[in-house]
Amino acid sequence: MNVSLVPTLKALKPAALVVGAAFVGLVFGYWANATLFPGPAQGTAYAPEQPINFSHKIHAGDYEINCQYCHTQARRSASAGVPSVSKCAGCHQLVVPERPQIRMVLDYWENGEPIPWVKVHDLPDFVHFPHKRHVAAGVECQTCHGPVETMDVVSRQAPDQMGLCLTCHKEHQVEFGTDCLTCHK
Amino acid sequence: MSSIDRRDFLKLVGAGGVGTGAGFVLRESINHPVEQLIPYPVPPEEFSPGIATYYNSVCSMCSAGCGITVRTREGRAKKIEGNPAHPVSQGRLCAHGQAGLQVLYNPDRLTGPMSRSVEGGELLPVTWEEGISQLAGRLGDLRANGQGNSVCFLSEGVRGHLAGLFELFMDQLGSNRLLHYDFAHPQTLYAAINRLFGEANLPYYDLQNTRFLLSFGADYLGNWISPVHHGLGFGRSRDGRDGVRGRFVQIEPRMSLSGAAADEWVPANPGTEGILALGLAHHIVNEGGYERGDRDAWVASLEAYSPAAVAEQTGVSADTIIRLAETFAGTQPSLAIGGGAAGQHSNGVDTLVAVNALNYLVGNLGREGGLVFNPPPAVGSGANGAQATYTSMLEIAEDARQGDIQVLILNQTNPAFTLPAAAEFRQAIAEVPLVVSLSSFMDETTAMADLILPSHTYLEAWGDDFPEPGVGFSAGAVSQPVVSPLYNTRATGDIIIGLAQALGLTDAFPWSNMEERLQEGWREIHARGVTAAEADDFEDFWTGVVKAGVWGETSRRVRPLAVESGVIESIGVESPEFSGSSAEYPFILHPYLSNTLDDGRGANLPWMQELPDPMTSVVYGSWVELNPTTAGELGLVEGDLVEVESPEGTVVAPVFVYPAIMPNVIAMPIGQGHTNYGRYASDRGVNPIEILSPQVEPETGDLAWAATRVRLVPTGQRVEIVKTGGVSRELGREIIQTVDAEPSAGESAGLSSIPVTVVHS
Amino acid sequence: MSFIDNFLARWQEYREPGYYKEFDYAWTMTIDLDRCTGCEACVTACQAENNIPIVGERGLAQGREMQWMRIERYWEGEYPDIKLGFIPMLCQHCDAAPCETVCPVSATYHNQDGLNAQVYNRCIGTRSCAVYCPYEVRYFNYNNHHWDAPLDEQLNPDVSVREKGVMEKCTFCIQRIRQAKDTAKDEERRVGDGDVQPACVQTCPAEALVFGDRNDPQSQVSQSMNDPRAYHVLEEVNTAPSVVYLKKVETDAG
Amino acid sequence: MQGEREISYADVNRDVVRSLVETGSKYYITLGISATVTLLCFFFPWFYQLHYGIGAAGMNQPTVWGTYLASFIFWIGLSHSGTLLSCVLHLTNSEWRKAMYRSAEAMTLFSLLVAATMVMVHVGRPWFVHWAVPYPNQMEMWPNFRSPLMFDVMAITTYLTGSSIFIYMGSIPDFAAVRDRTTGWRHHMYVLLSLGWRGTDTEWHRLGWAYTFLAVLIIPLAVSVHSIVSWDFALSVVPALHQTIFAPYFVVGAIYSGTAGIVTVMYFLRKYMNFEHYITKLHFDNLGKLLLVLSLIWTYINAVELFTGWYSETSFEIEALRYKLFGFYAPLYWEMILFCAVAPLLLISKRFRTSFVPMLILSIAINIGMYTERFLIVATSLSRQYLPDSWRVYVPSFVEISILVGSLAMFITLFLIFVKIFPSVSIYEVKETLPEPEPKPQTKAGVPEWQPTR
User: Which is nearest to C165 in space by CA: C132, C124, C129?
Assistant: First the structure.
C-alpha cells in the first residue's frame, strides 16, 4: 500500500508555489508602500513636504535659536504651538528677505494668510500630552522629536506609540506615570 | 527543482502581482489622513492655544438676567457657567442657560440679511447696506409725512440701555407703538403689587431666609421670574442654617416642579387660589391674634371668606386651611408668593393681591425672609414699562387690519406662536406692508417678514442688563461678546444705531456702535458714585465692571409696613370665569410652561429637546396629562391619542397618566408645536396656546391663559410616547430614603459603611 | 528572561485585585436629596462639558439615551396625598466596582484617586460592564453620533469624542481634575478643597451637590458625608460607592 | 450486533467511501442553498452592523446584551453534545457509540466555531478583539485575568483545541482506509491527513492509548467550559443572574441541548447518507433515554431557580421572578417549559424512542426551547434590574434574527462540507463490532483488503 508523501507533494507543488508567490507579494507590497510613501501612520522616518522648506538645521542648529523662541506655547500650554506668521516676518523682513523661500513667507504675511504646515508628530485625539509638564520636568525636546537641530526637513524620529511614553515614564518614575488617565482622555 | 513551464510562470507572476497589490492596499488602509498645523497670522493677545479663557457676560435665555461666565478655547465658546460674583446666579445656572451655546452654534441660524423683492416672493439674500437703506428709506418717508406713528416696534422683553435705545429711536420717529411682548410676563403680578403697595416694580422674595413658604401656583423652581435664584434660596433655606429648615407648601391644581420639591402639595380648584388665600387671611385676622389698626377693615372685607365657605369653593378642607393659616402666622419669617397659572384667570389680579396681602398681615414686608422692596433699577423704568398685554397686542392687530401700521419691526419675539389663534395675529401681520424681523432664527413670525436683518446672539453682542425684579438692591451687569460673530449678522443695538444714522438722526444718535452707547450710559452710573466696584477713573470702572461681569449698589431700601389706602376695603376675589360650559367642556385646561423649552423659545435647542421633562421624563414631543381616575373613566392609557377640543379649536396629543393632577383638570406643556423654527423644533408636538380662548383678565387686559375649558375626544389611535424613564415607583426598594425630621447633628454618622478602600491581601 | 520576570511581576499584581491600599486623593460626591429640586441643570451641564452626543428622537425611542447624569423620579402614594422624589443618578465610582472585575481588557479600572476610570480607546465593547453595573449608569455608543455643523464647534477639546462600539460614563470630569492637579503642581501644592468641581456640582442651583477629597477631613465633602442623613443607594449590593446621598427630610408642612 | 441485515467489512468500507466520493446533485443543491443563506443572512447583516454599529441590533440602555449572547451560549451548549458524550461513552466502552460519535464530535467542532463568530458579532469593536488575548505588546497591556469573559476566552480555545485533536486523532485510521480507496486530489488529501498511517500494531497501540488519555482529559474540560460560561452571568450582581446554581444549570442545559442536537443530526445522516444499517433504532433508543434523564434534571434545576427567587424575599428577586413568569416575555417562558420539561416525558415510551420522525421533531423542539431559555436568561433579567426608573423592554431587531438564522445556516454548511471530507461513520470502530470475515485473497484494485489488526 502506498503511504509515501512524495507523489502527493509533487502533485501539490504548483499550488504551493502559487500560494507562496502570493504571500511574498503581500509582504513586498506592504513594505514597498511603507518605504515609498511613509504616511502619518505609525512608524518612523515620516518626512512630509512642507509648504515652505523651513530648515530647523539653519535656525535651531547653525544659529542656535532656542526652540521656545518660536514654539512659545510649549512651556505654558498643552500644545507647543507653531510660531505665528508675524513672528517669521518679524525677523525676515530684515533678514534675507530677497530669498525666494523667504519671499513666500512674506507673501503669506502680506496677504495675512496662515502657512498651512503639515503635522509631522500627530498624536491620536484620545491622548492628552501636555508639553508644559514635560518642559517643566526638563525633558529635552529631542527626546521625542529627535535631533531637530540637525534636520533640514523635519522627519518623525520616534514612533508615536504608547510604549515610548510608558518606557520614559517608568524610567523616570513619573508620579502615577502608568495610570491610564494620566495620558488618556 | 524541475523547470517551470510558461503557464506556471504566468501563474506565479499573477499570484505575486495580486499579492503585492493586496499588501499595498493593506498598508494604505491603515494610513490615517494628514493633519495640518495652522498658525495665526498675528497672535491674539487675549488667549493662547490650549489654554482656556473665561469671559463674564449676562444670560438672556430668559428674563431672569443671570450673570454667566463663558469658557472659551481657541476663540470658540465651550461652556457656559454661572458668574459667582453675580447676585442673581451666584455661580449657578439652569439647564436653559447652559444651552445658550446651542443658540450661538445653532445650525439653523440666519446667516445674513434677506429681503422679499416682490410681495409673497422668495426671501433673497441682500447686503446690509441694501437692507438698512430699504428700511431706512421707508421709515424716512413715513417720518417726513408725519406718519411716524404708523411704525410699530415689537420686541422681546429687553432691559438696560438697549430698551432705552428702542425708546429713543421710536421717539425720534414720532411713534408710540413700542411694545415688549413675552408670553409669560407676570403682568397681573405687577398690577397686584402696584395696587397693594403702590410699587411699579416687583419686590424681592427672599426665599433664602424664609422659614415657611406658601406658593399659590408660582412654579418658582421651574420658570417663575428667576428660577436659578429661587433654587439657591430653596437650597439654603432647606439646610443652609443651623437647626432651621425652611418648609414649603405649594398650592396648585397640577403638581409642578416646585410642587414636587415642596413638603406639601395642596390641590385647589383652578382660579380659586385667591379665595383660598383670603380664607387663610380670614383665619389669621379673626383667630390669629391680629391686632393692627386696620383690623376692623379686614374683618369687614373678609367676612365672606370663612374657612368653611372657602373650603367648599376651593376643594381644600377647612382643617387644612386653618392649619396652613396658623403655621403661616406662627412661623416667622414666612412668605406667600403667587403667580403662574393662579394669576392668569379672570380674577388674576385680585388673586395675587389677596396672596400678597397675606405677607402684610403677618408682617413679612421689608424684612429678611419676607418681601423686600427693590430700589428702582439704575437704568430704565424696569421691565413693565412698555410691556404688551394681550389686549394691546389685539389693538396692534386691529390697527394693522385698519392699515394704520405701515412698518412692523420685530425683535426676537414670536407672537405668531405665543398668541392664541383667536387673536388672528398672523392674518394681521399679513396686512402690514413692510414687516421687518431682527430675529436670529427663522421662527413663525420671521417667516412672514418681508425684510430680515438678523441680529447677533447674546454671546456675540455688547449689552447690559439690570435684573428685574432685583435682589433687594440695585445691580447690573455688562454683557460682552465672547466670540467673534459667526455669520454676517449685527448686534441689535448697532442695527438701530445704523438705521438712525441712515435716517440722519446723528445728533440724537451720536454713537457709532452699541459699545459706545453703553460706555456713555455707564459713565452716568459711575458718576452716581455709590458702587460696589470702587474706581475713581471711569476707564478703570468700566474695565472693572466688564471683567467682573457685574456691578451693584450697596444701598438697600426701607419702606414702611403699609398698604395703599382703600385696598383693604376693595379686597376680595370673584370666583373664576371659564369659557365654555362645564357641561359641554368638562375639563379645565391647565397649560404650563415646559421646564425644558420655556415658552417655546428653547424648542430649537437639541439639548433642550433631549432633556427629559423632570416630571414625566418625556422627550421630543407634547402630551396631555390626566389624573389616573379620569383616565380610567375614559378608558385611556398612556400613548392614546386624544383630541383636546376647546371652543376655539382642537389639538391632538397622546395621553400621559399623571398621578398628581386634579381629576377635573388636564394639563399640557407649552413649547412644542412649532411649524417653522429649525430642524429640531419644526413639526413636533402641538402648541396648546393655539386653542386658548381669548379670555382676558379685566384689570390688566392680560390673557387669562388658564381659563379655558376643553373636552377630550379619543381618536382610537396610539403612539409610543418617547421617554427615558421606566417604572417610576420604588416598589419598596428604598432608593430615595427619607427621615421623618431633621436629625440633630450630634447623632452618629448615618453611613453604615463610609466608602473606604477594600484592601485585599 | 526579562519578559518572564515582567510577566511574573504582573502576575503578582493581578493576584491582588485592582484596589489600592489607600488613595492619593479620594474624590467623593455627596448629593443632598432634601435640596435637589429635579431641575436637571446638572444633566445639561454634563452634556455640555463632556461632549455627550445628541442622540435624536429615534435613538431615544429605542432607549439609547447617553446622558451620563440622569434624574430618576419616584412617585409615592396616590392622589391627592402624593409625593414625587427626584434622585440624580450618575456613576458611583464604587471602590468595589463590579464593572472593573468583568472588563476583559481592563478598559475600566480603579485609579489611585479612587476614580472608576473608563479608557475609551481600550474598550472593545463587550458591554459586560453595563450589565454588571447595578446603577445602570454606563452608556454604550450604539452608533457614531453626529453634530450638525456648527454645533461641533462647541465640543470640549479636553474630552475625546467616543466612537461607535465604545462604553462611556461619568468621569467626575477628569479633565477638570487633571487641570486642577496641573495648576497645583505648578504652585507645588496639593489640590485644595474647592479647586475642582465637576460641571454638575458647579451648576447645581440648589447647591445640592458637593464634591471633594474625602481624604481631607476638613473638606466640605467630608463634613457632609458625616451628616446623619448620609446613605448609599443600593447599599445591599455592597459596592462601596464614592457617591453619598443625604436622605430626604419628610415633615408635614405643619 | 449492528442493524437488521448482516453487513461485512467490505460493506462498511464501500458505504463509507461512497458517502465521501459519490455526491449527488441533491447534495450540491443543499450546500448551495445553505451557503447562500449564510452569506445573505449572516455576513451581509454583520457587515452592515460593522458599518453602522451595534445599534443595528435592538439592544437598549438597560438591556445591553441580546440575542447575540444568547446564540453564543446556545452554540457553546450544542458543542457539549459530541466530544463530551463521545468521551464518556468511549471510556464506558459502549458499543452503540461507535457508529455516531464521529459526526457528534464534528458538531462540537462546528458549533464551537459558530460560537466564536457570535462573539465577534457581539462585541462593539471586533477589530480590537485580539486585546482579549494575552500576548506581549508595546502597550504593555495584558487582558484582565479577573474577568469571567477572560476565563471564557481561555476555556473555549482550550476546548476547541482539545476536541479538534480528539476528532482528528480518531479519524486517522479511517483517513488511511479512505486514502487507499481513492484516487486523484482526494488521494493526495488523505495522504496528508492520514500522516502515513500503516496500521501496524504499534500505531494501533499508541492511538488507543492517546485516544483514551485525551478522552479522560476532555471530560472535566467540557464541564468546566460551560460552568465558566455561566459565570459570565453568575458573577454579576444582577437579580436572577447572581445564582450559585448557574454552573450546573448551564452544564446540564448544554448536554441536554447537545444530545437533542445529535438526535437531529443522526436522523439526517441516516436518511440522506444511507447509513440505515449503522445508525439504528438502538441509537435513538439510547439517546432517548439519555434525553429523558437530562430533561428531568434540567426541570429540577429550573424549579430550584424559581424557589431561590421566591424565598429570597427581596423586591429585586421577586420582581425578576414575577417578570419571568408573567411579564412581557412570559409566553416564551411557558413555551420553553412545554418544549423542554413537558414534551420530553413522551420519551418514557420505548415506541416513541424508537420511532425516528417523532424523535426528530422532539429533538428540534427541545433545541428551540433551549434557545428560548438562553434568550430569557439575558432578556428578562437585564430588563428588570435594580432601579425601576431605568427599566426597559428589549425586542430583537431584524438584523439580530437574520444573523441567528444565518449562524444556523453556517453550521449546516460546515457540516455538509465535513461529511464529504471526514468519514462520518467511524470505519474501524464499526468493524470492531462486526464478526471477522474470512480473509479474501485479492480485491479488484489489486490491493489486499485492509484489516484492523488487533
Answer: C124
